[in-house]
Every structure is written in C-alpha cells, then in structure tokens.
Write a structure and sequence with these properties.
mainly alpha
Length: 204
C-alpha cells in the first residue's frame, strides 16, 4: 500500500476506535472502578477481535461471516453475559476505598482477554466498520500480503494506543471522583455503565 492510503486508513480507523461505543464504555467503567489492573488483557482481546474481523474481510469471507448467524449470536450473548456479571460484581462490591484489590490471577487476566474478544466480535460497530466501511477505504481485491501485514500492524498499534489513552484519562479522573462521590457510588455508577454496554450489544 502507498503511504497515503495507509495514512488514510489509520486516520479513519483511529476515529472509529476513539468514538464512544460498548468497548470504550466497558473500559471506562472497569478503570473507574478498579484502576488499570487487568486492562491489558481486555485491550488485547479487543485488538485480536479487530484483527479477526479484518482477516475475514480481507479473505473475502464477509458473506460467510454474515451467514454464521447462530455462531455470532452465541458469541454476542456470551459477551453480554460477562459484562452483566462484571456489573453485578461492581454493584455488590465493598464501598471501602481502602480495601486492597486482590491481585489478578492468570485466569482472571485471561477472562478479561476473552471478555474483550467476545465484546469486539459481537460489537455491531466493529462489524459495520470492517464489513461495510473498510472496503470503501481499501480495495481488498487488490490487497497484497505486504498490504495485509501493514494494515494489521496499524490495527495492532492504533487500537491499544487509543484504548490506553482512554484508560489513563479515566484512571486520572478516578481519584477526583473517588473524593467527590465515594467508592460505593462509583462502583454502582460503573456497574450501570457496564450494564449499558451490555445493553448496547444485546439490542443491535
């Protein structure tokens, strides 16, 4: 791909990732309630999900993906169920801000990765971008292996960068909000945020 075409894709992709949606809502709720612990797994899951959708689109499997309705419904509601589980855990969490959060185990980190993956694979916004918008930006029929690798690299760099920037902003705001509203209210507000993200996915 030419540098101009790659830059065009990168700009549109960053705008799509940065626009508010279920993934950003889920990330913000998680960071505000628990800090940055465990978000690497969630962000990695989101990036892997985007790479899967890009691979399907580049390989000409968009029609196949759209016909696998039952499979994607299963993934969709698995992601919804996990977000609702996290919302429940936050809603019932202790309100003591001095309580030390337990260190995430490998299994918990893996579950965060799977949550990010399930959310991304079932996110209508992501589907629309890769199956409808991407082909208008990149001529997938002329995409070479090098071009495929270049776009994959852009995705692998841009998505984590945007999500980490969001996480840092939310983490900085967390201290201020904690002093103003208390841990109990923050937990419940974030639980509602996660439930809202689940609702966005479930109803589209």
């Amino acid at each position: 791909m030419t540098l101009t075409a790659l830059a065009l894709f990168a700009g549109i992709y960053i705008a799509a990732v940065a626009s508010p949606g279920p993934a950003v809502l889920a990330l913000s709720a998680r960071v505000l309630a628990r800090g940055r612990q465990g978000i690497a797994g969630f962000i990695a899951g989101c990036a892997i999900g985007d790479l899967i959708w890009f691979t399907l689109a580049a390989a000409g499997l968009a029609v196949v993906a759209q016909t696998m309705h039952e499979v994607f419904l299963l993934i969709k509601y698995a992601g919804v169920a996990y977000l609702l589980y996290l919302a429940y855990r936050l809603w019932t969490a202790p309100a003591d801000p001095n309580a030390k959060a337990p260190k995430l185990s490998a299994d918990t980190t893996l579950s965060m990765l799977l949550a990010g993956l399930a959310l991304t694979l079932s996110n209508p916004k992501t589907m629309v971008f890769f199956l409808a918008i991407l082909p208008t930006v990149v001529d997938l029929t002329m995409l070479t292996p090098l071009g495929f690798a270049e776009i994959g690299l852009v995705i692998a760099i841009c998505l984590p960068s945007v999500m980490i920037a969001y996480a840092l902003v939310f983490d900085r705001a967390r201290g201020t909000l904690l002093g103003a509203f208390g841990m109990g209210r923050i937990n419940k507000a974030c639980a509602l945020g996660l439930a809202g993200a689940a609702g966005l996915v479930a109803t589209r």
